[in-house]
Amino acid sequence: MDEEYDVVVLGTGLTECILSGLLSVEGKKVLHMDRNDYYGGESASLNLTQLYRKFRPDQTPPTELGRDRDYAIDLVPKFIIASGELTKILVHTEVTRYLEFKQIAGSFVYRDGKISKVPSNEMEAVKSPLMGLFEKRRAKKFFEFLQGWKDEDPATHQGINLDRDTMKTVYEKFGLEQGTQDFIGHAMALYLDDDYINKPARPTYERIVLYTSSMARYGKSPYIYPLYGLGELPQAFARLSAIYGGTYMLDKPIDEIVTDANGKFVGVRSGNETVKAKQVVGDPSYFGAGKTDSGKVRVVEEGKVIRAICLLKHPIPGTDDSDSCQIIIPQNQVGRKNDIYIAMVSSTHNVCAKDVYVAIVSTIVETSVPEKEILPALQLLGPIHDKFVSVSNLYTPTADGKSDNIFITKSYDATSHFETVVEDVQDVWKRMVGSDLVLKKREIEGVQE
């Protein structure tokens, strides 16, 4: 290991793999290492044996679940927003040639004890049980206002200033009920809590426009998902990196992050080998996350996320037998501060055996009994064949890395999409490279119905 690299990347989570792919394309000499013998780190997709080994080391998978190789179960459930930032990165780097995508059949929202589909067009909106007749008219005016908005044309503003007026002001202007606000803010703008209401309206406007344009792109829902699970994404970026000269080493223990007398990064030690590099980037687990002495990472305020991987033998009741869906339970509906998400996929996505459905429930932990907090979601699933529950700390770096050339990514949050992951990629990129990440606009080809 005598040669020197521009960047050593630690961990093969999606964030790290996107960065190593992009840095390689940029002409950087990249070495990518992971202590695991599989790709994906925290965001891996596991087969049955790996799943049981992780959650129940003393138990072998029951034979009635079918073949090991039919499974690719995501540890972190997320869908890709069709017009979102991750899609832009996928097409910009052309890693789409290594991947196939399928549409997610529907997006649902929980209200007054039952779930309803988030309308995907005017017809569905008119029939939707989410709103009464008069409220539908008000909501229609609200959406027409958003779609008609042009920054340069004050006639489209109806007296509203998106950069000054809060979202609360906008809702009040159109007279929208609390339940409608919940559904717009949480099922469309995809906010995790209600903090956005008292902030300027522009980010919410942009999120709703992103949602509706993603919806318009493929029709049934705004989400797409890679066949064979999310673990395919890091591998696709790893291939990209390799094409541009990046080197990969799996199953490589990382024993020390080596720094000089001034605390600046100089290399990474594995066993008795040390590799030299100018910069290092990696996930929090390589920089003392879980140990208290490192000082490089800290637990964020809303510090834990609970995820329950549930194996079902049937589609989720009330979803029109959808083979895949997202269900959002807005926090107001269940007396919480944070929303609860359910992401469900099935054998049509090549992630489990036929007649098995994988539903993953996730939320930010608010009490000392996290499993009790997700009961409202578990009760919507019908009989659960088996479930695997994890509670993880959410870490964030304590410094920007510019002074010591150590750049640390954030843990994966409870959101059900990848927009926050891409924000982290853009943030780390800017800190490492010194300029914004600029992407070309293209379309993803051939998404399956």
UniProtKB/TrEMBL annotation:
It comes from the Eukaryota. GO terms for cellular component: cytoplasm. Keywords: GTPase activation. The keyword Protein biosynthesis does not apply. InterPro entries: FAD/NAD-bd_sf, GDP_dissociation_inhibitor, RabGDI. GO terms for biological process: protein transport; small GTPase-mediated signal transduction; vesicle-mediated transport. SUPFAM superfamilies: FAD-linked reductases, C-terminal domain, FAD/NAD(P)-binding domain. Signal peptide: none annotated. One of its GO terms (molecular function) is GTPase activator activity. Belongs to the Rab GDI family. This is Rab GDP dissociation inhibitor. It comes from Gloeophyllum trabeum (strain ATCC 11539 / FP-39264 / Madison 617).
